[in-house]
Amino acid sequence: MTFAREKLLEEAKRINDAQDERKGVSIVVIGAPLGCLYIHGLLHAFLGHVDAGKSTLLGRLMYELGELDEKTRRANERGSSSAGKSSFSWAWGLDGTTEERERGITMDIALRSLKTTHRQITVLDAPGHKDFIPNMISGASQADCALLVVDATTGEFEAGFEKGGQTREHLLLARSLGVAQVIVAINKLDQVEWSESRYEEICTVLRPFLAQSGFHPSKTRFVPVGAIQGINLLRREGAESSSLREWYSGPTLVDFLDQLDPPARNVTTPLRIPISNIFKGQGSSAVSVSGRLIAGIVQTGERLRILPGDESAIVKSIEVEDKFVPWAAAGSNATLNLTGIEAINLGIGSVLCPLTDLIPLATVFTARIIVFDIQVPITAGTSVELHHHSRDVPATTLKLISTIDRSSGNVIKRNPRVLTKGTSAEVQIGLRPRIPLEPFSVNKDMGRILIRRGGETIAAGEFNV
Description:
Blueprint: H1 5-17, E1 23-30, H2 33-39, H3 54-64, H4 70-82, H5 98-103, E2 110-115, E3 119-125, H6 133-140, E4 145-151, H7 156-161, H8 166-176, E5 181-187, H9 196-212, E6 220-224, H10 242-245, H11 253-258, E7 273-280, E8 287-292, E9 297-299, E10 303-307, E11 312-320, E12 323-325, E13 327-329, E14 333-339, E15 351-354, E16 361-371, E17 378-379, E18 383-388, E19 391-404, E20 411-414, E21 418-419, E22 424-436, H12 444-447, E23 448-453, E24 456-463
Parallel strand pairs: 1-3, 1-4, 4-5, 5-6
Antiparallel strand pairs: 2-3, 7-8, 7-15, 8-14, 9-13, 10-11, 10-15, 11-12, 11-14, 16-22, 16-24, 17-21, 18-19, 18-23, 19-20, 19-22, 23-24
Main location: cytoplasm
InterPro entries: GTP-eEF1A_C (IPR054696), P-loop_NTPase (IPR027417), T_Tr_GTP-bd_dom (IPR000795), TRAFAC_GTPase_members (IPR050100), Transl_B-barrel_sf (IPR009000), Transl_elong_EF1A/Init_IF2_C (IPR009001)
GO molecular function, one term: GTP binding
């Protein structure tokens, strides 16, 4: 039985506005100490240098918050030790595939849940390695906030942040995909004797870059941590934290997580769910999909259209935070168990929407873009990859319409010959297959795009018409 639509909207608004409810936010964990090492051909030799990275921090944080029990922790410790990778024990439960554990890197999006006093946090542990940037894009497109984990050891932060390093690209990607809040966890400070000067040095480098990338200083936080020992994640007590306490008395990482601003949820507009994963459901004919509700509300028993294509399916059940629920609203990362459709008729990046409010399909459209720090200019006829949520498709810059003043929006030059780094421009883009797109003015999350070429992100922008 489905809820009456009006009552359902009222209930969703009530929960969204309630002051005493634990607010839900999604946070993508990014960090790339390994990416630059791989570029220089040192992956095998320096594998141990990532043992206190983002997955380690997240694993230890789960333990501190009671989401990882002692039995599982000991099992992870034994498993990593028997594989000769004992320093990876905290990441063992997150890097779940055999290949991830063998290589010591995160390759896909790991979804976890954490609870603080005032926040229910869905954590998307995104790959830091340059080979898995599309997976990172998929994770960031589902997030409200970012937790950037940087390596404070000598040379490692510089390698990740220098031109070509993944830290810069990850931050630009996250901001371009609508992530407005960022917490920077400066990790491995225990390996530099909890040096305050090293901490301040890294903060000084990152602050202007974050501001230039579009992160407002009021939405940016820095925190010193030691992930393996759990120092300053939830607390900083004991002798091992004494050196940090000499100069730092600010919030812990959990304090900052608990203060994240939950964004306004767009529950009254038409339902939009870009599919990020497809897997076998319960029952012989069932198929399940997961993704983030960008807008609207979905409820069990509802028939939804899948675009592109002519197929539709019925929502048999809904899971949020590993619990079956009768409905889910915008902002939720949900799993929908579907009937009446075969898995072959579903695709990563396809969008679920109501039969009465279909999302438009685009093959040629105009976009306003910002060009990143590129070496080879963009010209008319450039072949690129367009990324939109979990979908990436071949595309072409059909026409360079104009360059634009970023602050005023006024046209600087019409029909430019090339677009160089730092340029804002309006371009016409052509796609090989049609994909679901909505103008940025209608739905910001469905209107954002990223443009890549040759394994490099070269621009980000907004779909206009």
